[in-house]
Structures are given as structure tokens and as C-alpha cells.
């Protein structure tokens, strides 16, 4: 009897391990940030970042809205891009991915990212990923319409969680 129980223990362990691996946890939702301060002064010792923004397939066909971006690390280093939009180049069209090269202060691991939208068309980003030479890629999943006139996004700096989770 005891031998049968001992043989079943590894199977039970494997079963619960597989069951845990398949759990789906909800992604954090972006939050408005009314008191966000943008550091518009970017220092000369700058680094280069690639930012990839995927527009949701349920977004408007295109947007004429002005889109700005700010991201940074837990130590106060911040990169600010005041205008990413360009209606003439068809940025932020439905189901598209737009890639931008942005220069700004060097950061440690990016742990927050906020978008700012100004306009009337509306725009629904699916995700934003920041790639830096000295940092791991950090992805932020929106999939909601960014409200107009307010910084809107994620801050994982104080949670101890990775922004690319």
C-alpha cells in the first residue's frame, strides 16, 4: 500500500505543476496619472531606444490625434517624446505596428510608460514595447482607448515586478 502511495506522489506533483502553468492571470490595467511631471529637458549624454507601438485592430481606422510618450526607470531617469504622430505618414492606423527611434537619457530597466493623447478621433493601442541597448525589452499592454488630455499608462517601479511580465 505504501509503495503505491509513493509512486503516485510524483504524478500528483506533475499534475499540479502543469495545472499551475496553464492558469491565466489578468493583465494589469493602465491607470490615469493626473500629477505626472514630464522632464522636457533631455540631457546631452543620451542613449538610443527603439519603441514599437502596435495599434489595436478594434481602434479607429486612423487617428489625427497628437500622441506623446514618456518612459523611465525607478531612479528618476525619464525619456520623453513629445509628438510621435504624423497623419501624413499614416502612423497609428488600425492593426498596424509603428516603430520609432528615440534618443534620451540613459536609463536602467524601464519600469513605467505613459501615453498622452490630445484630439477627438480616439486611439486604442494594443501594446508598447521599449528596446534599449543596456536594458531588457519592456512591454506594456494597453488594449483600451487612451483618454484625451491625461497621461495614461503603467508604473511597475514600486511593485518590484517586471514591466515585461
From TrEMBL:
List the top taxonomic levels of the source.
Answer: Eukaryota, Viridiplantae, Streptophyta, Embryophyta, Tracheophyta
Which terms are listed as keywords in the entry?
Answer: Signal
* Signal sequence extent: 1-21
Quick check: keyword Signal in the entry? yes
Gene3D superfamilies, alphabetically?
PLAT/LH2 domain (2.60.60.20)
Tell me which stretches of the chain form a coiled coil: none
The organism's place on the tree of life at top rank: Eukaryota
What protein am I looking at?
A: Embryo-specific protein 3 isoform 2
Keyword tRNA-binding present in the record's keywords: the answer is no
Extract the Pfam families matched here.
Answer: ATS3
Which InterPro entries would you find in this protein's record? Embryo-specific_ATS3, PLAT/LH2_dom_sf
Amino acid at each position: 500500500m505504501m509503495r503505491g502511495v509513493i509512486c503516485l506522489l510524483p504524478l500528483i506533483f506533475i499534475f499540479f505543476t502543469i495545472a499551475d502553468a496553464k492558469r491565466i492571470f489578468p493583465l494589469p490595467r493602465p491607470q490615469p496619472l493626473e500629477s505626472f511631471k514630464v522632464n522636457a529637458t533631455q540631457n546631452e549624454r543620451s542613449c538610443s531606444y527603439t519603441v514599437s507601438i502596435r495599434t489595436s485592430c478594434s481602434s479607429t481606422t486612423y487617428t489625427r490625434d497628437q500622441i506623446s510618450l514618456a518612459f523611465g526607470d525607478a531612479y528618476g531617469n525619464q525619456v520623453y517624446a513629445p509628438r510621435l504622430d504624423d497623419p501624413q505618414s499614416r502612423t497609428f492606423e488600425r492593426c498596424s505596428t509603428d516603430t520609432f527611434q528615440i534618443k534620451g537619457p540613459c536609463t536602467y530597466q524601464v519600469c513605467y510608460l505613459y501615453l498622452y493623447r490630445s484630439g477627438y478621433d480616439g486611439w486604442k493601442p494594443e501594446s508598447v514595447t521599449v528596446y534599449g541597448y543596456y536594458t531588457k525589452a519592456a512591454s506594456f499592454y494597453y488594449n483600451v482607448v487612451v483618454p484625451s488630455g491625461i497621461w495614461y499608462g503603467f508604473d511597475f517601479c514600486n511593485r518590484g515586478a517586471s514591466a515585461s511580465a
